[in-house]
Design goal:
- The protein is α/β, with parallel strands linked by helices.
- It is built from 22 helices and 19 strands.
- Strands 10, 11, 12, 13, 14, 15, 16, 17, 18 and 19 form a 10-stranded mixed sheet that branches.
- The chain is rod-shaped, with a radius of gyration of 54 Å.
- The two termini are 57 Å apart.
- Mean pLDDT is 84; it is low at 6-12, 116-129, 132-153 and 165-174.
- The structure holds ligand C2E and magnesium ion (2 copies).
- Ligand C2E is lined by residues 452, 468-469, 480-482, 485, 494, 497-498, 501, 525, 527, 557, 587-588, 611, 646-649, 666-668, 673.
Length: 687
């Protein structure tokens, strides 16, 4: 057989989690930092470019002056040449000539002379006031002097510089706002002159004008604008994906029927609750709340009313569950609840109270609920193993256990709450097994007919038998009817089994007839489920006739509980069966139900006293039981019925029944149910 696999990625849906938004957010901030660094490096590179181009200009000036001095030196001595060249200098430029030992030979200008050191190197002449010094970026000083090509300056500082009042030096300072000098630094520079034993220096200024700073800031602003477009887009994208994800999560966890949370949410929430260390000491209960006959409710009041009811239940549960608890609808009218309880008793009490309130939701419509409880004990071993066990709880599995407990309440009148134990699960597994194998078992003839003889207490001879089914399974061995008949009665398969047994009895009777054997009446059980068929009598008649058996030697046992169904139908069928010549017996008379009234209405041939009459429960009850048996036998006789006592195990019981005029005795005292061959041998021996 080909197996079809579901291709849906269930795991992926389960894994869909709020956390997946974080990579986008982290990426966004990383990009923001990257943009910031990029803008800063743009500004730095452009700033360095401006400074170094100014430095180059100053070096060119020095070289130019050197060439002028050298040209003049062909006609004059060096001091005159320098004096001549000083005429080309600007007002702020000083010039100075020293001999080889750095003794000043000539100084033209207003500023004091610098402190000379080794050849070619000079320290800056500090002619600034303290205020002016503090506005100079310290690193800039050295970098300008060493002609390095990098300096770092913040945008704030640049902005401050741009807006600052100018030091008021230089010719450019006059008039134009853009050309105002906002920063100037003076320094001495050696002029390259080819004159042995002399050094020539001149003082110049590195000037930063407002426009330079504005250019640098403009470059920064352009870079910011260019980079901010993707940043804004990315930001919008992150925001919309957060919103989208929130909507998706809401949808993913939404139960469209109740408007509350769905099962995916429930499972995840339970896992979270189990994972929390602070919940480890709490006892929890997984609960299945099942609304009985929800389908009937919908059929009666419509689907909309059904859904409205589920919505109401959802609202009710919402109000009744606490912070570390959760619930959700599982399917149809089944809800799963995870409740914090102190113990099984307290949990049952709480559920009882809840059920009382729930039934009040629609007081006019009778609603029944079943509750299955699976207890989750607190973690006693706080170390790894205990907590680990809690964390590994399979939520679906324990909910399945809770459901098994509530399903076990089916057919149990007046019982609404059931706590799970493993026997329930075993019963369910057995039920599933029986249901899976019953059809093939019937085809493979695994059901066998056993006969339990009925004896006359007077003669001590076999006067009848009851056909009882035995399931001899190749895997399970012999299975007693008590283990499968109730399951068949629940799922309706019992009618098929009854047909099979009636046919088997008919076949047996016709075989006995053919073999010329004494015909012993055999009774066969007909379950109450059959009495819903209006043509049951014709059907049984047809089954028996197909084997050519006499109707008179077949007795049909109807359990007492069948007399509480559709009385008219039962009466009609029994009358028809009687017409066809079958005998009818009322099985298990006196077990639970009181069918005395039926005795009056129905033409029953045999009354089978339930074995409970003969189970001794002390002297007093035994004495009272004897009175009831005595009177019942009398009643049956008065109504022209034969009486069979079932479950007779002791000699005294036989004697008592014989004394009371009981017609037949069926019980282990005489014989247990046996295979047909054994029964035949017993009959032969007797004759
Ligand atoms: P039942 O029809 O009342 O059958 C009598 C049950 O009492 C049989 O159990 C029998 O073995 C048991 N029994 C007889 N004498 C004694 C005794 O002295 N002591 C004790 N402890 N038990 C005694 P069994 O065969 O296990 O059948 C149980 C029930 O299963 C039957 O009760 C009947 O209701 C049902 N059943 C059995 N076979 C069939 C069948 O073919 N069709 C239907 N519909 N029901 C069947
Ligand atoms: Mg019976
Ligand atoms: Mg019985």
């Amino acid at each position: 057989m080909r197996l079809y696999r579901c291709k849906c990625k269930k795991q992926k849906i389960k894994g869909f989690h709020k956390k997946s938004i974080w990579p986008s957010i982290v990426l966004f901030f990383m990009y923001l930092v990257f943009c910031f660094l990029l803008v800063m490096s743009f500004i730095s590179v452009f700033g360095v470019y401006i400074i170094s181009s100014k430095m180059d200009e100053l070096s060119d000036n020095a070289r130019h002056l050197g060439r002028l001095i050298e040209g003049r030196m062909q006609e004059e001595d060096i001091l005159d040449a320098v004096s001549y060249v000083s005429g080309y200098l600007r007002q702020e430029n000083d010039i100075c000539v020293t001999d080889g030992d750095y003794h000043v030979l000539l100084h033209l200008g207003e500023t004091e002379l610098p402190d000379f050191h080794e050849a070619g190197e000079m320290r800056i002449y500090e002619d600034f006031s303290d205020d002016e010094k503090s506005s100079i970026i310290p690193s800039m000083e050295d970098q300008v002097l060493n002609n390095e090509s990098a300096f770092i300056i913040s945008i704030d500082e640049l902005w401050e510089l741009a807006m600052k009042a100018p030091p008021g030096k230089g010719p450019e300072a006059q008039g134009k706002w853009l050309n105002e000098i906002i920063y100037s630094i003076d320094y001495w520079k050696a002029i390259p002159v080819n004159a042995q034993g002399y050094h020539v220096y001149y003082k110049d200024s590195l000037i930063l004008m407002r426009k330079d700073v504005i250019y640098i800031l403009a470059v920064g602003a352009i870079a910011v604008i260019v980079l901010m477009v993707p940043v804004i887009l990315l930001f919008i994208n992150v925001l919309s994906s957060i919103a989208m994800q929130k909507r998706m999560i809401k949808l993913l966890y939404l139960d469209t029927i109740t408007g509350g949370k769905n099962w995916v949410y429930f499972v995840q929430r339970c896992k979270k609750i189990f994972c929390r260390i602070r919940n480890a000491r709490n006892t929890y209960a997984m609960i299945n709340l099942h609304m009985d006959r929800y389908q009937d409710y919908c059929a009666c009041y419509g689907n909309k009313a059904g859904e409205e009811l589920l919505e109401n239940i959802n609202g009710f549960l919402q109000a009744k569950t606490g912070r570390e608890e959760t619930f959700a609808r599982f399917a149809k009218a089944d809800f799963g609840l995870l409740l914090k309880c102190e113990g099984t008793k307290q949990c049952e009490q709480r559920m009882k109270k809840m059920l009382a309130e729930l039934t009040g939701i629609k007081r006019e419509r009778r609603l029944n609920y079943h509750v299955g409880i699976y207890m989750i004990p607190p973690v006693t071993n706080q170390k790894d193993s205990g907590l680990q066990q809690r964390r590994q709880i399979d939520v679906d599995q324990i909910y399945h256990y809770a459901t098994a407990a509530s399903e076990n309440l089916h057919g149990k009148e007046g019982q609404f709450i059931q706590v799970f134990d493993h026997q329930i699960l075993e019963e369910q597994l057995w039920k599933r097994k029986v249901e899976d194998t019953m059809e093939p078992a019937l085809l493979n003839k695994e059901f066998h007919i056993y006969l339990q003889p009925k004896y006359s207490p007077l003669s001590g001879k076999i006067v009848g038998a009851e056909a009882l089914v035995r399931w001899i399974s190749p895997t399970e061995g012999l299975i007693a009817p008590g283990r499968f008949i109730p399951i068949f009665e629940e799922n309706g398969f019992i009618t098929r089994l009854d047909d099979y047994m009636i046919s088997a009895v008919a076949k047996l009777q016709s075989e006995w007839k053919l073999q010329g054997k004494k015909s012993i009446p055999v009774s066969v059980n007909v379950s109450r489920a059959n009495f819903t068929k209006p043509d049951l009598a014709q059907h049984i008649c047809h089954l028996v006739d197909s084997y050519g058996a006499d109707h008179a030697v077949i007795e049909l046992e109807v359990t007492e509980s069948a007399f509480f169904g559709d009385k008219d139908m039962l009466q009609k069928i029994i009358k028809e069966l009687k017409m066809y010549g079958f005998h009818i017996s009322m099985d298990d008379f006196g077990a639970g139900y009181s069918s005395l009234n039926s005795l009056k209405d129905l033409p029953i041939d045999v009354l089978k006293l339930d074995m409970e009459f003969f189970r001794s429960k002390g002297d007093e009850t035994e004495r009272r039981g004897e009175i009831v048996v005595k009177e019942t036998i009398q009643l049956a006789k008065n109504l022209d019925m034969k009486i069979v006592a079932e479950g007779i195990e002791r000699r005294e019981q036989v004697d008592f029944l014989a004394e009371q005029g009981c017609d037949m005795i069926q019980g282990f005292y005489y014989a247990k149910p046996m295979p047909v061959s054994e029964f035949n041998e017993r009959v032969e021996k007797e004759s």
